[in-house]
Amino acid sequence: MGFLMSKSMDANLQKQQEFMLHNSRLQMERQILMQNQMRERQMAMQIAWSREFLKYFGSFFAVATLGLTAGAIKRKKPGMLAPIVPLGFVFAYQMDSAYGTLIYRMRGEAENIMASEHDRLDLPLGTPTYESIEKARRAKTGLISFLEK
């Protein structure tokens, strides 16, 4: 009798473990999908910000270029055109960021760093562990209780 009950309990335990494993896997997949959607939304906001900034900076660049060119011609001082060069570089960068291939080049460089220069990604003092987090928490809790006395 006890053997049959034990066998039934073992089968139920096995089913429960499989169910828990399936649930944890499903939860992990949902979490990965959610994090990826959040990352995509953040990237879309960055690109949108770049495009919006480009509109304002492009207007400023056009007005500044026209004004500096008119001033250089009127005063016959070609040195007044000098600010157009650095502003042109900033404008080109913003244009590349908003509509160009900058993001693809950055992604390729990031993949290269992760593949061949992984040591540059190491955190100071290594990856946080449960023990290090608990130690910091206890130190903070000890400090708070010390301050309350």
Automatic annotation (TrEMBL):
* Assigned keywords, A-Z: Membrane, Transmembrane, Transmembrane helix
Task: Fetch the InterPro entries from UniProt.
Answer: Plg-R(KT)
Query: Does the record bear Transmembrane in its keywords?
Result: yes
Q: Which GO terms describe its biological process?
A: positive regulation of plasminogen activation
Where is the chain membrane-spanning? Answer: 82-104
Please give the superkingdom of this protein's source. Answer: Eukaryota
**Does this entry carry the keyword Membrane?**
yes
GO CC field: plasma membrane
Q: What is this protein called?
A: Plasminogen receptor, C-terminal lysine transmembrane protein
> What lineage is this protein's organism placed in?
Eukaryota, Metazoa, Chordata, Craniata, Vertebrata
